[in-house]
Write a structure and sequence with these properties.
By secondary structure, the chain is an alpha+beta fold. The chain contains ten helices and 19 strands. Strands 15-14-13-12-16-17-18-19 form an eight-stranded antiparallel beta sheet. Strands 8-7-6-5-9-10-11 form a seven-stranded antiparallel beta sheet, covered by helices on one side. It has a four-stranded antiparallel beta sheet with strand order 3-2-1-4. Strand 6 (228-234) and strand 7 (239-245) form a beta hairpin. The chain is elongated, with a radius of gyration of 37 Å.
Length: 500
């Protein structure tokens, strides 16, 4: 059993080191450990669980008369499973017929065949009434499953119980790209430091594809593990060309594949050539740290999110190389705000700025819904909407000549869905929705629902005229998915009724 646990541990260590380090660590250390672990794993044989046949030599030995004996012939080993059928005659007891399988040597087999009257130790007698007739196919038995199961359990416990950072060993080796001089990654310990070098390298690689390649880029990906990928649109065939440089080892051969994207989805290399990715990533990280400390750079993706929209640089940040949050940037260095929607002062400020950017007056009755939803896991969803998963601020507006929605999501630039045409006027203005009222409503709801202070940001609150009370807009709220906190309030913060 100890060997099985050791084998599982060796396999787990090999997998962990191979998965969280450079490719050569997997080849030099990971693979040999996995192979050694498999080799160490105990393998029960057909005789490992069988008792060895021995003649009785002591005074209490029991005489038997062998009636039939069958020796397995699957291999030519000295010891083989052997089925014995014999009449057992215990002293001072009735004789009985027994059948059992034991591990028997070749010499013992021939001896029993020649002299069927023999003896066996008293402790080796077969059962008088066995539960089932023994068969050669019964071996190997449970240990054939116990050993591998123990190894799998040991490997699983180690892989799931040890954080990824433990597997990341601090060793380095010159990359293939560095040796060949093809412009691979710089090998910096901080993945954000060499992003600009990697950007220049991938743009140079794209330029070598052909004269139109630099004007038809679909996406660039710069992972924290020194992996760089690019997807380029070929306008002559409608295909996508993929370039990959894994862990800075050098560029693989370009691969072609089908794509549903077209020229309108692409961007030019000169749109991002002057972007300082190092500075941009530093700004992204500092804004995230204000509300989500401890997260580090994981990945950056550069693409045009939708036709007609500007190019975005989306940075992913997280722990143990797993993305937790994303934040948007633009080629000119602008970075979106990353905020806690439960901070009403900040949410109102960003909402006012977004309305100004969308040319929507804050003192005119052009709103039907103004919602703030937190980002905590236990934040309720009162009504379906564009921020029901992301959290943030949602404004539904309408006026005689336009209507639509305006959202401000943490880590994203304000998003406007604007539809021109005849429409009706709204029901209340942004200036009528006061932060102090939202704070008062939240405090009342927390008291009614017995909400803990640490759940104050798990809030979904909105001013709306869609579900008016006496033809007047109301404020609806719920916190932490606690129904007792749900309520409807007037626009001045007066409690009206439970629920929403």
């Amino acid at each position: 059993m100890i060997r099985a646990v050791v084998a599982g541990t060796m396999v787990a260590v090999g997998i962990g080191l191979g998965a969280f380090n450079a490719w050569w660590v997997a080849v030099v250390i990971g693979v040999p450990l996995i192979v050694a672990g498999i080799a160490v794993l105990p393998r029960p044989s057909r005789i490992s669980e069988l008792p060895e046949f021995r003649r009785g030599t002591s005074a209490d030995a029991v005489p038997i008369e062998v009636e039939a004996i069958t020796r397995s012939s699957l291999d030519a080993g000295e010891m083989q499973p052997t089925m014995v059928t014999a009449t057992v005659r215990p002293p001072d007891d009735t004789a009985y017929r027994g059948r059992w399988i034991s591990s028997m040597s070749r010499s013992h087999f021939h001896s029993v065949v020649d002299r069927p009257f023999t003896t066996v130790p008293a402790g080796a007698l077969p059962d008088r009434s066995p539960g089932q007739t023994p068969e050669f196919g019964d071996q190997p038995g449970r240990w054939a499953l116990v050993y591998p199961a123990a190894a799998v359990v040991a490997a699983t416990v180690l892989l799931l119980g040890v954080p990824g950072s433990v597997w990341d060993i601090d060793v380095s080796m010159p990359s293939v790209s560095g040796l060949s001089g093809d412009g691979g990654a710089s090998g910096s310990e901080d993945p954000a430091v060499d992003l600009d070098d990697r950007k220049r390298s991938v743009l140079d690689e794209i330029a070598q594809l052909g004269p139109t390649a630099s004007a038809n880029i679909l996406s660039l990906d710069l992972d924290e593990d020194d992996t760089t990928r690019a997807e380029v649109y070929d306008p002559t065939t409608g295909e996508a060309i993929t370039l990959s440089n894994y862990s800075g080892r050098g560029w693989d051969e370009p691969r072609r594949g089908t794509t549903t994207k077209r020229r309108a989805d692409t961007f030019r290399a000169d749109e991002i050539a002057g972007t300082d990715l190092g500075s941009l990533t530093t700004t992204m990280g500092s804004r995230i740290q204000a509300t989500r400390p401890g997260l580090t750079y994981v990945d950056m993706t550069i693409s045009r999110p939708a036709r007609g929209e500007p190019v975005l640089l989306v940075g992913a940040f997280g722990q143990d190389r797993m993305s937790d949050v994303e934040i948007q940037g633009r080629p000119d260095g602008q970075v979106a705000e990353f905020f806690d929607p439960g901070d009403f002062a900040t949410s109102f400020r960003l909402a006012r700025d977004a309305l100004a950017g969308a040319d929507l007056a804050t003192d005119q009755p052009n709103l039907r819904r103004f919602e703030i939803r937190g980002t905590a896991d236990n934040t309720p969803i009162m009504y379906a909407g564009q921020i029901q998963n992301s959290g943030g601020v949602l404004m539904e507006f309408t006026s005689p000549d336009r209507h639509g929605t305006l959202t401000v999501v943490p880590g994203e630039f304000p998003a406007l869905s604007d539809y021109q045409g005849r429409s009706s006027a709204g029901d209340f203005s942004f200036d009528q929705v006061r932060p102090a009222v939202f704070e008062s409503v939240r405090a009342q709801a927390m008291e009614r629902g017995a909400i803990e202070p640490f759940d104050r940001s798990a809030v979904d609150i909105e001013a709306t005229s869609i579900f008016a009370h006496d033809d007047e807009p109301v404020v609806k709220v719920e916190l932490a998915r606690e129904s007792a906190s749900a309520g409807t309030y007037s626009m001045t913060g007066q409690f009206l009724e439970t629920g929403y």
